[in-house]
């Protein structure tokens, strides 16, 4: 089967020769510009850590609903802890997605100026390792994401370190999403309705079942089927906005399985890489041309996130 997205090897950028690094930058830049998605191998995220967090997530979601609801934090817009089934919807849809999730966010040292901005992560008494495993995975994703953004900033002619200060202690989120078995004909919802991500880039570690699809330039839905030890990366709206639509935040969705597989749940673990809230998302001057005039007003990352959380029903 032909791949829907290109595949790149991150080790060629991290530890390759000068020629390998530049080839990687070109491949990644082309993929983000033309498709908005890429598969990445040799990303440095330990397989055992992914497997341990998967197993802990399965145990958490298997808990009774009334126990899980203890970990739903009022007023947090789902940014920490549990969000129950049917709360979130795509911005253009009023029908809730068929999913529940648990989120782990940034942690900073005591006395750090951002301490007040980042609430503590939620600890689960019944699954004591869950938050710790999640945060170890969070840091591993941050490391891989930082390397990908170095390559993108080289591609954009900004030098290698453009994003470094903007993502250090950024407002990123690790989300463990559980799509329960489908027990009756869905009203109209699919597991996750078509949407674009809010953040700079998303790093997705292989889901336990298929269903992820992207909408290509020909307006066709293409199934994304990651291979063993491959993570899927996509451009988010913040990076599209920063680059004045040069890099593409591609519409994607998670479709329901064939009826004979309705009894199978699905678990997936995306990492939404966000910058610090005061990052200026004004379009880069180098991305504004006669052929591509300015598309967006200036806004900060924090203001933009706030706007989008309201649109998807997580923030009132």
UniProtKB/TrEMBL annotation:
Alphabetical keyword list: Ethylene biosynthesis, Iron, Metal-binding, Oxidoreductase
Organism whose genome encodes this protein: Haliscomenobacter hydrossis (strain ATCC 27775 / DSM 1100 / LMG 10767 / O)
TM annotation in the entry: none
One Gene Ontology MF term: 2-oxoglutarate oxygenase/decarboxylase (ethylene-forming) activity
GO biological process: ethylene biosynthetic process
Catalytic EC class: oxidoreductase
Stated family: Belongs to the iron/ascorbate-dependent oxidoreductase family.
Domain Fe2OG dioxygenase intervals: 169-275
Catalytic activity, EC: 1.13.12.19, 1.14.20.7
Gene3D superfamilies: B-lactam Antibiotic, Isopenicillin N Synthase, Chain
Name of this chain's protein: 2-oxoglutarate-dependent ethylene/succinate-forming enzyme
Catalysed reactions, semicolon-separated: L-arginine + 2-oxoglutarate + O2 = guanidine + L-glutamate 5-semialdehyde + succinate + CO2; 2-oxoglutarate + O2 + 2 H(+) = ethene + 3 CO2 + H2O
Entry superkingdom: Bacteria
Pathway: Alkene biosynthesis; ethylene biosynthesis via 2-oxoglutarate
């Amino acid at each position: 089967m032909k791949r829907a997205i290109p595949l790149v090897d991150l080790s060629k950028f991290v530890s390759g020769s000068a020629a390998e690094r530049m080839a990687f930058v070109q491949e990644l830049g082309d993929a983000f510009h033309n498709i908005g998605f890429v598969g990445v191998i040799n990303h440095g995220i330990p397989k055992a850590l992914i497997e341990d967090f998967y197993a802990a997530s399965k145990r958490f979601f298997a808990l009774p609903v009334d126990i899980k609801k203890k970990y739903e934090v009022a007023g947090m817009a789902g940014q920490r802890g549990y969000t129950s089934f049917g709360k979130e919807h795509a911005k253009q849809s009023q029908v809730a997605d068929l999913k529940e999730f648990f989120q782990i966010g940034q942690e900073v040292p005591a006395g750090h100026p951002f301490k007040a901005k980042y609430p503590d992560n939620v600890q689960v008494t019944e699954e004591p390792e869950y938050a710790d495993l999640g945060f170890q995975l969070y840091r591993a994703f941050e490391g891989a994401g930082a390397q990908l953004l170095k390559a993108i900033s080289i591609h954009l002619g900004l030098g290698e370190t453009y994003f470094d200060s903007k993502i250090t202690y950024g407002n990123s989120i690790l989300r463990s999403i559980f799509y329960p078995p489908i027990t009756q004909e869905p009203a109209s919802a699919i597991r996750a309705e078509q949407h674009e991500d809010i953040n700079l880039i998303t790093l997705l570690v292989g889901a336990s079942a298929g269903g992820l699809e992207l909408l290509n330039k020909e307006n066709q839905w293409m199934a994304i089927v990651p291979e063993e030890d491959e993570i899927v990366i996509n451009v988010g709206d913040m990076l599209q906005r920063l680059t004045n639509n040069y890099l593409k935040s591609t519409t994607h969705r998670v479709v329901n399985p064939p009826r004979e597989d309705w009894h199978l749940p699905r678990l997936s673990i995306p990492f939404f890489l966000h910058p610090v809230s005061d990052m200026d998302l004004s379009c880069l001057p180098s991305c504004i041309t006669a052929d591509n005039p300015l598309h967006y007003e200036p806004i900060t990352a924090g203001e933009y996130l706030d706007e989008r959380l309201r649109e998807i029903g997580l923030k009132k």
